[in-house]
Specification:
By secondary structure, chain A is mostly beta strands. Chain A has no helices and eleven strands. In chain B, a hairpin with a 4-residue loop joins β5 and β6. The chains are: A mainly beta, B mainly beta.
């Protein structure tokens, strides 16, 4: 099983500032990496897939980068609605065993 | 726009069978894999398994012995059965479309308690 490790567990950032979240895979997943945003009481929302492609309707302030084992989600200028928990997920296995990171909570500083 | 609506029993006793169904509205039912994912406070998000319109399935090996995912293309629905549940199966269960999941159901809290 590929283990996904996110850091930090909690990130405190002021509105308007940049946030950088990290995700590391225990073995290479190529570019088969997705990022999700989750708010309390809601299902996760897909932000990024293919490591760097924004999903439909996702603002340009969200960007993803990386390949292999090291990935980054950057939010360029934090808006109030961006404070949430963010998860990464790899979907590289065959046979499929898609695994998630444990999440990074992005909170207001 | 694709919408997923899920339902099923929310309170089970240990050893019972969890049964959830997800209906898909709008968009094509074929051409995608349809997934079940669960979320617990302790274990986070866990992929359970997936099925396509022709019934081809992939399961999480850790749950494979207890799960069955089935599809009813005539109703654009797919279902999850998880047998012999324990407290460790208490979670919010989601259905979702595609890999990685683009559209999600609203989630169903399933509690296993005697």
């Amino acid at each position: 099983e590929i283990v996904m490790t996110q850091s930090p567990a909690t990130l405190s950032v002021s509105p308007g500032e940049r946030a950088t979240l990290s995700c590391r895979a225990s073995q290479s997943v190529g570019s088969n990496l997705a990022w999700y945003q989750q708010k309390p009481g809601q299902a996760p929302r897909l932000l990024i897939y293919g490591a760097s492609t924004r999903a439909i309707g996702i603002p340009a302030r969200f960007s993803g980068s990386g390949s292999g084992t090291e990935f980054t989600l950057t939010i360029s200028s934090l808006q109030s609605e961006d404070f949430a928990v963010y998860y990464c997920q790899q979907y590289n296995n065959w046979p499929p065993l898609y695994t998630f990171g444990q999440g990074t909570k992005l909170e207001i500083k | 726009q694709v919408q997923l609506q899920q339902w099923g029993a929310g309170l089970l006793k240990p050893s019972e069978t969890l049964s959830l169904t997800c209906a898909v509205y709008g968009g094509s039912f074929s051409g995608y894999y349809w997934s079940w994912i669960r979320q617990t406070p302790g274990q986070g998000l866990e992929w359970i398994g997936e099925i396509n319109h022709s019934g081809s399935t992939n399961y999480n090996p850790s749950l494979k012995s207890r799960i069955t995912i089935s599809v009813d293309t005539s109703k654009s629905q797919f279902s999850l059965k998880l047998n012999s549940v324990t407290g460790a199966d208490t979670a919010v269960y989601y259905c979702a479309r595609a890999t990685p999941p683009v559209d999600w159901g609203q989630g169903t809290l399933v509690t296993v308690s005697s």
